[in-house]
Every structure is written in C-alpha cells, then in structure tokens.
Amino acid sequence: MSERHMRIGEVAERTGLSLRTIRHYEDVGLVTPSARSKGGFRLYTEADVERLMVIRRMKPLDFSLDEMRDLLQITDRLTATENAPAGPETARLRERLDAFRKVAEARCEALRARLAMAEDFATTLRRLQSDIHPPTHPPTHQPA
C-alpha cells in the first residue's frame, strides 16, 4: 500500500505553518517534499509533516536554521535503515542529540522564568487598577 500524499495547503493547516514558511524551509534544505504531482505540486507524507513539526517546535526556543538542520541530520542518521551508523558514530550522534535536549530544557526553563515575570507584571497591573477607584459620580458642569 502506498503512503498517502498531502498537498502543501493541507500540510500548512496541519502544522500551523504558512505556505511561505514551508517553502522557505524547503529552500534552505530543512524539508523536501517527498514527491511532486504530475502538475508539479509539492506532495508531502506524514513523515514530512513530523519533520516540519520538529522545526516548528524548535522555533520558539530560538534555534537557528543551522541548528535545526544539524538536529534533523542527527535524527536522520540515527533512524536510517540503510547505511545506519554503527558503534562510535552512533554514540557520537546520541551525545549530540542529548546536547540538543539539554539546550532545549535550559531554554524552556528560561522561558518559564520570563513567563512568571510577565504574569507577575500582569498581576501588578490588575492590583493597581483595582486600587485606583473610579470616581463614584461623574463630574458635573457648573453653569457659568
């Protein structure tokens, strides 16, 4: 049974990425459509969607395009069925993958700290707003 192919619009909808962003990721070599239709339309598989989701999840953690490419190459090598890495190369790739995990966890923790500060600020604004009582009566104009 052949794998189902999706056009770029469906992939954009499923990933939350714009068509332009998906095309950009193709241009910079992060993802390549698995096929093209007879009319030349990009066709993607579920594996392509998963690859785009990895990229999408890296973006808020400020990973660069080069870092994204590096991580994708690592995972491609580790999951390869043909010419699979062996011995020392597998160990080296796993170490690099673990380094990415540690960086991601540290960046998540930094984002949590920033979010906590932002929430504290919003709470401060709500408190200030409730402490400043609006006038109970609108000012009246005195006839001149």
Report on the structure:
By secondary structure, the chain is mostly helical. The chain has 5 helices and 3 strands. A hairpin with a 5-residue loop joins β2 and β3. The model has no long low-confidence stretch (mean pLDDT 91).
Low-confidence runs (pLDDT<50, min 5 residues)?
Answer: none
Biggest sheet, spatial arrangement of strands: 1-3-2
Shape: elongated
Q: Helix/strand-derived class?
A: mainly alpha
- Assembly status: single chain
**Biggest sheet, open or closed, and with what strands and sense?**
3 strands, antiparallel
Radius of gyration: 25 Å
Please state roughly what percent of the residues sit in beta strands, choosing from under 5%, 5-15%, 15-25%, 25-35%, 35-45% or over 45%.
under 5%
Distance from N terminus to C terminus (CA atoms, Å) equals 89 Å
Number of strands: 3
The H-and-E topology, N to C, reads as: EHHEEHHH
Fraction of helical residues: 55-70%
The whole-number mean of residue pLDDT values reads 91
DSSP helical segment count: 5
Describe the structure using short key phrases.
single chain, 144 residues, mainly alpha, 3-stranded antiparallel sheet, 62% helix
Summarize the structure.
It is built from five helices and three strands; from the N terminus they run E-H-H-E-E-H-H-H.
